[in-house]
Amino acid sequence: MSLKIWKIISVFLVFLTSSLLHFIYVWFPNTFTSLLFPVNESIWEHNKIIIGSFLIWAIIEKIFFKEKKNSLWAGFISGIFCGALVMLVFTPVYFLILKTQDNIIVTFIIFFIAIAISEILNYKILQKEYKPTSEKLALIGFGLIIVLNAFLTYYPIKVGIFYDYNKLTYGIKN
Hints:
The protein is an all-alpha fold. The protein has one domain (3-170). It is built from 7 helices and 2 strands. It has a two-stranded antiparallel ribbon. The longest helix is centred in the middle third of the chain and has 28 residues, at 71-98.
């Protein structure tokens, strides 16, 4: 399968993986799953599913596209980009235009477009020359982001992007 076809398929697979990861904490509520998966419906907690999905697909690409030695780096950069894009679009749309977090259609559209744009970036990065240090930096970067997200689950900043308007709480409710 060509990389272009794979990237088109990846848009849908990352989206589906994200949808699955969204519910892991709901299905298996415990400390471990709270560190890796969203514990509430705040905008910030959804970064966990973005990073998790891009990490999973970067590992899959590492396995199946061995000639693309910078797949972890591409996954890391595109995952960060996707998270930033979602935050930059999602936040003003919800707080300034819709004034709610409960529009699943708008959420899916923003999320899907952000993933598609991020997969285009991922494809472009995979076309670049491989640098061995980039894969190590990607692993460190994924690790740091996972730790940061886990920390902010238990110690959220008291601003709107960390607030769950459904549960009326910040972070995880102990």
